[in-house]
Amino acid sequence: MDFNQSTDDNLFDRARIVGKPHARIDGALKVTGQAPYAYERHDVAAHQLVGYPLCATIAKGRITHMDATAARAAPGVAAVVTTLDIEPLAQAKSNVARLFGGDTVAHYHQAIAVVVADTLEQARSAAALIEVRYQEEQGVFDLDAAWEQQTPDEPLSDVGDVDAAFKNAAVTLDEVYRTASQSHAMMEPHASIVDWSDGGKMTVWTSNQMIAWTRKALAKTFAIDSDAIRLESPYVGGGFGGKLWLRADTVLAALGSRASGRPVKLALPRPLVFNNATHRSGTVQRLRIAADAEGRITAFDHSAFSHTLPGGSGENPVNQTRAFYAGASRRVAHTAIEMDLPESADMRAPGEASGLAALEIAMDEMAEKLGMDPVEFRILNDTQVDPEDPTKPFSDRHYVECLQKGAADFGWEARNRTPGSQREGQWLIGHGVAGAYRGAPTMDSGARVRLQAGRLVVETDMTDIGTGSYTIIAQTAAEAMGLTLEDVEVRLGNSDYPVSSGSGGQFGAASATAGVYAACLKLQEEIAQRLGMKSPRFEQGRVIAGTTEVALAEVADGEELVAEDTIHFGDFKDTLQIGTFAAHFVEVAVHAHTGEIRVRRMLAVCDAGRILNPVTARSQGIGGMTMGVGSALMEGLTPDVERGFFVNHDLASYEVAVHADIPEQEVIFLDTTDAASTPLKAKGVGELGICGVAAAVANAIYNATGIRVRDYPMTLDRLI
Ligand code: MOS
Q1: Residue 275 resides in a domain
Q2: Residue 529: which domain range?
Q3: Long-range contacts made by residues 705-709, C-beta under 8 angstroms, separation at least 24?
Q4: Nearest C-alpha to atom 4 of ligand 1 is from which residue?
Q5: Residue 616, SS3?
Q6: Whole-angstrom Cα distance, residue 539 to residue 542?
Q7: What is the pLDDT of residue 466?
Q8: Which of 148, 297, 498, 506 has fewest C-beta within 10 Å?
Q9: Which residues line ligand 1 (CB under 6 A)?
Q10: Pocket of ligand 1, candidates 210, 245, 280, 346: which has the most ligand atoms within 8 Å of its Cβ, to mutate?
Q11: pLDDT per residue as tens digits for the range 353-411
Q12: Could you tell me if 557 and 627 lie in one domain?
């Protein structure tokens, strides 16, 4: 199905099931422990062995010697594969450093051997017996030292006359902001079971966001045919971008399986996840804003630096600055500095979260310089067109309503107006606001539907990474076919199913439901043809045309009817800016003597098109907000700038926000639809929730204390 804007009223404008709150249909399986995660697949691939990775303890250099004799002779060991045993594996485009093979070490904790044994304990203790000698090289590990020496890359865009705007401005700002490197810290670490025991067909049970990409990456890595690979990832215990790509767990399990002739399961031990897998790169961002005396922004100049292994792209935080606010002149540049820290890649709202963490503090600072309310300042500088290309409108943008509704519901009028002036005993109270803007892309997405005796089975390789895909897909199919939610079974995360968008970039929910809808329309056509009906309606388990009605259970005489389709999104999207928006309001208390920071109240008002399921969408919102509190107050990978690894590589020292850090949180979705997005007029919400949150917390801290912190995370030592 080719999708072009659907401005007409459609089925989903009169929806019975889509848009209504429904608990997750997979919820019971999950809370009763019956949803099988990759490492727990005892039901597949008999006689599994266990793999354990050995990882490099230098950040850069060569391995000159490895001796695995003792490991191979250790109890229970079935196979050992060292990186010197095989040629460097081909790299899929998405992997910046090779995942295995050869003598080069490109980053700390790069995998250099896998030991396969009967038990985890045997594999782990044997891995410790492998002798490794290195020739170490000096690497570059300190972003803060590197960025000032670096010549910035050419601007990504440069419109208007930025220099003149600054010269003529009534008010200007020029500050430097820093965001920390962050780890996805998903509950379930990277884990795979691979059966490649005969070196022919490869079957993979894994935890991955993108079935089709990963299958392709595996084919390239091992130079085998895609068709020889089958992948399953029906349940994923969190991804946040860390499981978008093929990682070492799958590669090592495959090598171990081939070498041992048995299926092998392998999970990255938590302390190896941080430096072996990917992380969000830290950034240093210089931001300048110019405005006239009335508070109208005339120019932005945003120049950012992040780090990457050679060949990668780093964390680009300047894109939101290009289109969030009005202003005739703007220049943005991002320079990815090639360094030797572990591999940086996507993490929830990659770029957007880091960029808005800086931009939305800068907006607060500008409002203060102008003597304006920060909500009013943002409203004044709203834009309904792409400021870099005014011929390109936003398809549907209600940022101003987000700010207005948020201010009203939060009680913004009654806030502390003078920084450092509101106290409750020993606690200083502050209020902050920040905006959020995240694009709403869509990707072609396919699905297959099977009608069996009035029940519908949906099959797509879409994943559910904790987001609610199972549920919104069931809702979509039930709506389209006139069935109940209970009549629909959803099967996800399997390479035998049609290729979907997968879960990433906030495109999953909107794209995958559109693909399922397309497949349902195909099935409807087939049913209509069989019954000789013209444009029938599908309601209450029946097909209806005029006075004729047939129960769906009876349309196929006991046969199964199967239909498959893929939604393709038209080029018209290039002529529009399609985005999601939010306003975040936060109240904090800061202890006047210890600097302890407590978030007390959070409110997000979001504009993200039709909300497919308010329950699962709210969970995305509060999940993102919680992660935003982590970014603001605690999350930060600390590089050892001498030895080139992240020191806090476990969940005891890499702190994430937990329940006790999060008091009252509310998420309001505006009742909007975006006809340019999908037939369901829906947009994604998975990454919007984290955008802007850190700055709202930062602005509240400033309001509480009068101390302006521009470096994340804002630990209490920065306040005293
Ligand atoms: Mo997302 S960072 O594309 O999973």
Answers
A1: no
A2: 2-35+443-571
A3: 705/419, 705/420, 705/428, 705/430, 705/590, 706/419, 706/420, 708/361, 708/365
A4: 241
A5: helix
A6: 5
A7: 96
A8: 148
A9: 209, 239-241, 244, 346-348, 350, 504-505
A10: 346
A11: 999 999 999 999 999 999 999 999 999 999 999 999 999 999 999 999 999 999 999 99
A12: no
- Can 687 be counted among the known catalytic residues? yes
Give the Å distance between the CA of 314 and the centre of ligand 1: 14
How far, in Å, from the CA of 514 to the mean position of ligand 1? 19
CB 242 within 8 A of CB 79: no
Predicted pLDDT of residue 624 = 98
**498 and 593: one domain?**
no
Number of structural domains found in the chain: 3
For this complex, say whether ipTM is above 0.90.
yes
Q: Nearest to residue 66, comparing CAs of 128, 135, 133?
A: 133
Residue 8 has pLDDT above 90, yes or no: no
Q: How confident is the model at residue 570 (pLDDT cuts 50, 70, 90)?
A: confident
Same domain for 566 and 596, yes or no, is: no
Q: Which of 650, 602, 651 has its CA nearest to residue 628? A: 602
For 688-707, give one letter per residue: b (16+ CB within 10 A) or e.
bbbbbbbbbbbbbbbbbbeb
Is residue 7 pLDDT above 90, yes or no? no
What confidence tens digit (pLDDT) does each residue in 306-315 have?
999 999 999 9
At residue 143, does pLDDT exceed 90?
yes
Give DSSP secondary structure letters for 154-186.
Answer: PPSEEES-HHHHHHH-SEEEEEEEEE-BB----
Cβ neighbours for 478, distance < 8 A, ≥ 6 positions apart: 17, 456, 484, 485, 487, 488
pLDDT digits (tens, 9 = 90+) for 576-622: 999 999 999 999 999 999 999 999 999 999 999 999 999 999 999 99
Whether residues 293 and 220 fall in one domain:
no
CATH number at residue 631: 3.30.365.10
Atom of ligand 1 nearest to the CA of 346: 2
User: Hey, which of 208, 236, 280, 348 would you mutate to test ligand 1's pocket, going by the most ligand atoms within 8 Å of its Cβ?
Assistant: 348
pLDDT surpasses 90 at 93: no
Give the active site residue among 232, 360, 368, 687: 687
Within this chain, do residues 527 and 555 fall inside the same structural domain, yes or no?
yes
Say yes or no: 219 and 81 in one domain.
Answer: yes
Per residue in 185-240, pLDDT tens? 999 999 999 999 988 999 999 999 999 999 999 999 999 999 999 999 999 999 99
Give residue 253 CA to ligand 1 midpoint distance, Å: 24
**Mean of all residue pLDDT scores within the chain:** 97
The amino acid at 388: E
Report yes or no: 543 and 552 within 8 Å, Cβ to Cβ.
Answer: yes
| Judgement on whether residues 75 and 206 belong to the same structural domain of the protein | yes
Residue range 461-487, pLDDT digits in tens: 999 999 999 999 999 999 999 999 999
Cα dihedral 11/13/16/17 (nearest 10): 90
Residue 578 CA, ligand 1 centroid: distance in Å: 18
